Amino acid sequence: MLSERRLEVLRAIVQDYVGTEEPVGSKALTERHNLQVSPATVRNDMAALEEEGYIAQPHTSAGRVPTDKGYRLFVDKLADVKPLSAPERRAIQNFLDGAVDLDDVVGRTVRLLAQLTRQVAVVQYPSLSRSTVRHVELLSLAPARLMLVLITDTGRVEQRLIDCPVPFGETSLAELRARLNGRVAGQRFPEVPRLVADLPDSFDLEERGTVSTVLSSLLETLVEETEERLVIGGTANLTRFGQDFTLTIRPVLEALEEHVVLLRLLGEAKDSGMTVRIGHENAHEGLTSTSVVSVGYGSGDEAVAKLGVVGPTRMDYPGTMGAVRAVARYVGQILAEN
Amino acid sequence: MLSERRLEVLRAIVQDYVGTEEPVGSKALTERHNLQVSPATVRNDMAALEEEGYIAQPHTSAGRVPTDKGYRLFVDKLADVKPLSAPERRAIQNFLDGAVDLDDVVGRTVRLLAQLTRQVAVVQYPSLSRSTVRHVELLSLAPARLMLVLITDTGRVEQRLIDCPVPFGETSLAELRARLNGRVAGQRFPEVPRLVADLPDSFDLEERGTVSTVLSSLLETLVEETEERLVIGGTANLTRFGQDFTLTIRPVLEALEEHVVLLRLLGEAKDSGMTVRIGHENAHEGLTSTSVVSVGYGSGDEAVAKLGVVGPTRMDYPGTMGAVRAVARYVGQILAEN
DNA sequence: CCCTGGCACTCCACGTCACCGAGTGCCAAT
DNA sequence: ATTGGCACTCGGTGACGTGGAGTGCCAGGG
């Protein structure tokens, strides 16, 4: 177990390094933080911290830099989430209050988060599987072509084109629409397959084919690929970090374009509370020098989706966590109002 | 007027520079392109080309680099659009054919274009103002809350939440829905305001407020901000250019995040045929070292939107133009099939 | 009149070298 | 356990020299 002061030294190293982006030495530490001990003592502490793997030196005769393990300890034990300032909170509210629909909420949120943290922001649309069905609409676009529109309590709207095997009459359509809504409206999505399974049976033989087509189209929207959508913003902020460039920024951009990767990442995070994944804790190769701060958000207690930021491991964790948490709360409020 | 050979020299310079990314000298030119003249002659030609502003040297005793004006001449007079190879064409077709709805088509297109050109791809959704209304749907989500769903012939679906001043009965809703569709279905969007202007008059006084609210919400979707949507992909490709980085890549990323900027850019392009805007021809400051190749696409002769790529001025113009044109054609075909 | 070979000149890129300074580890003293 | 002292390491920086690619110009030849 590390002594109290050594933890204090680690905290100071993290804070300084995050601020200056340069390896921090023993002398500078004692000057900038009043540790009440001499540089030599700090050196001993640093040697111990390095021994334990919390910090490292890029090369002999350079200052120390926190390792992933060091950041982990910092986040777990040494850092408090920094609440936003009053003006910041007001800015959030003003910015989000103008949203007119879910797309708008998500779009504004991602811009807001990127601006607030000066990092890359990621916002997931409310997951279908955690929403309830508000309404299912069936529209006839052409004799043998339907459009299925799905609306959730979180305001999400999914549509899908359907090619019918045979033309489907307007009355049958109304019938199907009514029965479908009778079954699923107000129900949770994961229940839907079970609830509609026997629906084709109650239709005439010749209509059954179309009904089945419609249903399978409905069930397809629950497939992961369409189920989880997300939006990314603030990628320009990536250019603020290091100039190694092709080694640092490219893999990150590539990873960000692979939404699947991000979805998996967010999926691995805890459902409630904030999750911080640091450096190599992220499975994806391109993201081993970044940290991901994410949190669930939702209109009630339960999270319907996640949002967060992606930034360099050397980031201001307390500030970032504060911003992420605050934004998630406001978004939850907005959602609850609808 | 420049002699034939001088144009040939310019072409050679552009080709070599695009290939090597390094200033090209007279000797290398004569070796790699059989110009049938000596380096000294080429030097004279180069001096003339520089005099005219088509090429420049980064510093004395370095090779020459094309200027924006040089690229412009190259594109206008010296380059042919390079048709795609058969495998490439097949790849496009395979990749786009699997799309299930418009979102999917646009998403696939942007990925395809980014991969094909190895640059940043931009795809605009079919513009509402150039589409016709296929259907307008009104759903009652809560007593005083409606959802307006708008479907175009291009497959685009826009939805909007509406808060009604007073609850609106189901029969009135059906009435409004029917009359609305009677007026606008099959009509072009720009006609819509005119067509619905007198609609509130035919309703009872107490319903008029809600009807007006619905109509103004419908008209709002025609406002530019929601009217034009676009998707961007392949930003990771930006890292392939130069390492000046904060001077080159950041402003571009920032510009790309400002969809408004891109929309203006695309808007300035010709409606039919391909448009190439080179370097400083782009009004936006962040894009003065990039070129934008764009082209309209649509299901018929008329373009409903544009797509294109953003890359460094030093790009393979013939190849890029070929890819952009081919993709636009295929997307048009896909759209026509729906 | 245009093309060509020759020649002197210019500068960037690159490698070498020396030096400075921040930072370290270790040790003896308190 | 803490501290001051001291020798050592090593990356960053600037000065310097050199090589080479490239240029402009000029005189001679088709």
Overall pLDDT score of chain A: 91
Largest interface: A-B, 30 and 30 residues
Instruction: Give the N-terminus to C-terminus distance of chain A in angstroms.
Output: 50 Å
Number of beta-strand segments of chain A: 10
The global form of chain A is elongated
Assigned CATH architecture of the largest domain in chain A: 2-Layer Sandwich
Overall domain count of chain A: 3
How are the strands of the biggest sheet of chain A laid out side by side? 7-3-10-9-8
The major beta sheet of chain A can be summarized as: 5 strands, antiparallel
The CATH class of the largest domain in chain A turns out to be: Alpha Beta
Name the beta content range of chain A: 15-25%
What is the CA-atom radius of gyration of chain A, in angstroms?
26 Å
Helical proportion of chain A, percent range: 40-55%
Low-pLDDT segments, ≥5 res of chain A: none
What would you say this structure looks like, in words?
2 copies of one chain form a homodimer. By secondary structure, the first copy, chain A, is an alpha+beta fold. Chain A folds into 3 domains: 4-76, Winged helix-like DNA-binding domain superfamily/Winged helix DNA-binding domain (Arc Repressor Mutant, subunit A, Orthogonal Bundle), CATH 1.10.10.10; 86-125 and 229-337, Beta-Lactamase; 129-226, Enolase-like, domain 1, CATH 3.30.390. The first copy, chain A, has 13 helices and 10 strands. Chain A has helices spanning 4-20, 26-32, 39-52, 68-78, 86-97, 102-117, 170-184, 192-196, 205-220, 224-227, 249-257, 259-268, 317-337; strands at 55-56, 65-66, 120-124, 133-142, 145-152, 157-163, 230-233, 274-278, 290-297, 305-312. A 5-stranded antiparallel β-sheet of chain A has the order 7-3-10-9-8, with helices on both faces. In chain A, strands 4-5-6 form a 3-stranded antiparallel β-sheet. In chain A, strands 1-2 form a two-stranded antiparallel ribbon. In chain A, strand 1 and strand 2 form a beta hairpin. In chain A, helix 2 packs across helix 3. The longest helix of chain A is centred in the last third of the chain and has 21 residues, at 317-337. Chain A is elongated. The mean pLDDT of chain A is 91. At the A-B interface, strand 4, strand 5, strand 6 and helix 11 of A face strand 4, strand 5, strand 6 and helix 11 of B. Chain A binds a DNA duplex (30 and 30 nucleotides) through helix 2 and helix 3.
